[in-house]
Amino acid sequence: MRTLISTAFISLDGVVEAPGGEPGYRNSGWTFKHTEFLPEAFDIKAREQQEATAMLMGRNSYQAFSPVWPDMEDFADYKVMPKYVVSTTLGEEDLVSNWGETTILRSLDEVAALKRTEGGPIIVHGSASLNQALADADLIDRYHLLVFPLLLGAGKRLFSTTDKDTQKLKLVEHEVYANGLQKNVFDVVR
After folding, report:
1. 182: Cα separation from own chain's centroid
2. Cβ-based neighbour number of residue 15 at 10 Å
3. What is the DSSP pairing of strand 182-188 with strand 83-86?
4. pLDDT, position 175
5. pLDDT in the model for residue 65
6. Which residues form the Bacterial bifunctional deaminase-reductase C-terminal domain (predicted)?
7. Is the pTM here over 0.90, yes or no?
8. Given this model, what pLDDT does residue 38 score?
9. Long-range pairs for 167-170 at CB < 8 Å and ≥24 separation?
10. Which of 64, 39, 28, 3 has the alpha carbon at shortest distance from 186?
11. Which of 37, 40, 64, 47 is nearest to 7 (CA)?
12. Which of 6, 57, 138, 149 is 20 to 30 A away from residue 121, measured at CA?
């Protein structure tokens, strides 16, 4: 079974919305506005591109990333890997032509089927609502979190508020950086 990895820039109070400057959010671009940039804190991002064999995202994240990421050298490895978009509304005509193979999945059952295929890790970028649904369906295997020393108050959160049993996580990698960022890698314990 393939490993499904959720990766996120996250504030200390759990907000993941608009870290890179997406419009329409009061704290848009919070990752670089308030925290000194230290390249070593972002090494995990390069590692994710090298280790992942596919990318999964929701419709909103696809529509935000697809006009920009295909031409960014920082995301060159993602251009050539297969991408999967979970959406009930996106059509084939909505897919960009310059970002490699992209498949639309219509349900979490199709995500579960994808996990059962041969291949390496699948990385989930952005996609707050999708992450919550994946976690509620027990489909996430690992979290890569870069925790920023900020309290943003409002915004989309990574973790679901569904009333469910405790989900245990095992910390498998961590590091704290001089700018206050924390890298936390957790495996989901089943």
Report:
1. 16
2. 25
3. unpaired
4. 98
5. 93
6. 2-182
7. yes
8. 95
9. 167/135, 169/143
10. 3
11. 47
12. 149
Question: Look-up: residue for tokens 């569904």?
Answer: 162
Closest to 2 measured CA to CA, from 49, 54, 48: 54
Type of residue found at 37? F
3-state secondary structure the chain: CCCEEEEEEEECCCECCCCCCCCCCCCCCHHHHCCCCCHHHHHHHHHHHHHCCEEEEEHHHHHHHCCCHHHCHHHHHHHHCCEEEECCCCCHHHCCCCCCCEEEECCHHHHHHHHCCCCCCEEEECCHHHHHHHHHCCCCCEEEEEEECCCCCCCCECCCCCCCCCCCEEEEEEEECCCCCEEEEEEECC
Q: What is the pLDDT of residue 22?
A: 81
Query: Which residue has tokens 């959406």?
Result: 87
